[in-house]
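[SOLVED] Predicted holo structure with S-adenosylmethionine

Edit: marking solved, answer below. Original request kept for reference. I posted the sequence and ligand SMILES and asked for the 3D complex as structure tokens.
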Amino acid sequence: MSLRLPDSGAPTGPDGRRHAPSADRNAEAILAVLRDEAPEGRMLEIAAGTGQHAARFAAALPALLWQPTDVDPANLPSIEAWREASGAPNLRAPILLDATRPGWPARHPCEALLIVNLLHLIPETEAAAVLCHAASALTPGGTLFLYGPFLRDGRPGSAGDESFDASLRAQNPEIGLKDSTWIEERLAEAGLAVRRIEMPAHNLMFVARRT
Ligand SMILES: C[S@@+](CC[C@H](N)C(=O)[O-])C[C@H]1O[C@@H](n2cnc3c(N)ncnc32)[C@H](O)[C@@H]1O
């Protein structure tokens, strides 16, 4: 079932690029964290969506070889159109990847991994699988960047998050915002040292390093 999300129906430009307003709003704050914390090497972006982040971040961070991925084949043309428009030589063509399925970490070992606004869209068991797979894809010293809206002690961080969470659960009772402590426990179990950073608009970024 496709979900009704605030960015659903992001318009497609004549060159095939789609624009999600949320990806414009949060890009600068996410990039600031990546600039400070990302190691050099291979960056695997899970759930790249429109491809806006991939184009912007790869151009700004030339020491990273950026590989955008998404589970939905319909997203690949937009990601590719953003790649062509960016001209960034360190941005690779997008590939299909379902982050909940086993097997991909062995095919895509990486020094850095980015996941933005995915975990609230999938059930808890799948979110746990994504975190476990992400941890095992990281090389020693590698870092996972996990961004999005999360519950804090089981409670939404804002009235906006509360209604967003309710609208997700109304569409599918198995999905919705995950709790920040639950995330930290899963990442620690997977062998990562995790830190959380408060981000604008009540979002969080987890920076989790393989020690
Ligand atoms: C809300 S969009 C976020 C896109 C982008 N990260 C951003 O912030 O603009 C969620 C994305 O997750 C992708 N997705 C959903 N389930 C996935 C899965 N199991 N593996 C990989 N990507 C998935 C969707 O196709 C969609 O592109």
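OP edit: The CA atoms of residues 42 and 65 lie 5 Å apart. Thanks to everyone who chimed in.
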